[in-house]
Structures are given as structure tokens and as C-alpha cells.
Design goal:
about 300 residues, alpha+beta, Ribosomal Protein S5, domain 2, Alpha-Beta Plaits, 2 domains, four-stranded antiparallel sheet
Length: about 300
Amino acid sequence: MTEGTVRTSDTYLAQAKVNLGLAVIALRGDGYHELETVMARVGLADELRIGIAEVAGAGRDAVHLTVDVAPGLPGGDAIGPAQDNLAVRAAEAYLRQRRASAPDAQHVVVDLHLAKHIPVAAGLGGGSADAGAVLRALAERLPAGVDVQAVARALGSDVPFLTTTAPAALARGRGERLAAVAVPRLHLVLANPGGQVSAAAAYANLVGFTPRLRFDGALANLAAGAEPGWPNGLQPGVLRSLPVVRAVLGALRGAGLRGVLLSGSGPTCFGVARDAEHARSVAVALAGAQPGWWVRADRTA
């Protein structure tokens, strides 16, 4: 922690998400795509220890970042400089808005220590979850006249949901229009073969638009033991650009999982298991068969 008047350093969880269906409906006039997706939090999470020091005589607010990456984490070696990190950008944006609303507030130094467990650029919202956790923390500990959701919207399509504490939501527009949705506890297997897919690249490789989600029907199918039939409009294009994803989807289906799908822009894929034990046994078997893949049993929040 930077020297100064220290406020207690606290740790926040930045939970990953999966997309339980993602419809890409149309191209908007602003150049973005109109989406409809159900985002659900899972247990996998980064940990952010956030300390704040009021620094007497400082001429500006500042944000510092240190990162510890879990061994073997997909994309972990591609984490860039602090100024490009979404958690840092979120903190800086919040502090700018705080300064605009309270020009005479004491300057602060925000120290972020990020323990990275969510694969990077993997369709699980890791960077967005980090940004959301930072925004929640600063709104709690440095309250000011800041429109937190407006800051979140400017940072990325997944950030508005991941700034909330809701376990799941139906997201429309670019992801900023959120509506509550009930998702039952689903036991999942997550698998990532390595490689990264940026959201921009996934949309650039879009093959075609998709119909709107029919999420209630998907849940009814799951409850009946059938395939949910949820789509991911980005999946066909990602399969073209990263063919190994096809093998991941096939392995998950071959293990008897339902609803097997690419999450977001991938390359992480998931499938729904019968129960926790089924998820664990599939994850162990798949990790043994594919030692180069990152595999995890998890569940929705």
C-alpha cells in the first residue's frame, strides 16, 4: 500500500460468467451488434485486493496494479501493461467522475492486487469481471455522484452485468439493457484448449445473424432431460478461425453433457452435467485425456 492515510484493504471476488445462449440479431447504426444473451455467474473468480490511501499534498489521483497469474492459466502470458488493464481503466474512470462531481475531495491512491484465475480473452468475462469488482468497490468505499453503470457501459459490453451482484441476467442491446432472469443451479464443465479470441475478431468472423433467444423454452427442455437448444451466433465464425474448438465441443458432447456451447467469443466451451459428481468425473477424465487443455468443473451461482 502506498504511504498515506490508509483505509482498510479489502478483497473482492470478480466472478466469471458463461453465456447460456447468445443471439446476434442485427448490426446497429452505431456499428455495434444488437445482442440478446443470458449471462450467468459461475464459481470461478479472480481475486482483487483493493487498498485506498488518502495522500496529503498529492496533486492527482493514481492507480497502481500488481498481478499474480495462476500457473498454466490460458492467456496468462499475454496480460499487457497496467494502463491497458480493464481493472485499472475502471478505477481511473471512476476517479475521474468522482473528481468531476467533488473537485475538492482528498486525492487518493488506489492499489489493486489482482490474483488472476480466469483465463484471458476466453469468453468468460475475466477482464470485465475485474472491472466490475473495482467499480463496486470504489462506489462502496469512495461514494460520490458517479453514474457507475454509465462508466461500466463505456468499458465494454459485459461490464454492466458484471458490475451488478445479480447471479444471472438477460442482456439486450450491446449488453447494457439488463433484466432479471431466474437460472437454476447448473453443474458445468468448462474446457479451454488454449489460444485467444478477442470479441472484435469474433464479430469480424460472424457468419450470419440468429433468431432471438427462447430462454424459457431452453430451461424447460433442460428440466425435461432434453437439449436446451440455446445458440451462440458467434460460434460458427470462431470454429472457422480456431478449428480446435470443434474438438472441445465434441469431447464435451461425447462425455454426455447437454447444452454444449461456446461461451461468449470463446474459446472456452461448456456443457451441463447431471449433477456435481457427473461434472467432476467428466472434468477429471477430460483433463487426463487432454493434458494441454484447461478444464474445470463448476456451477452457476
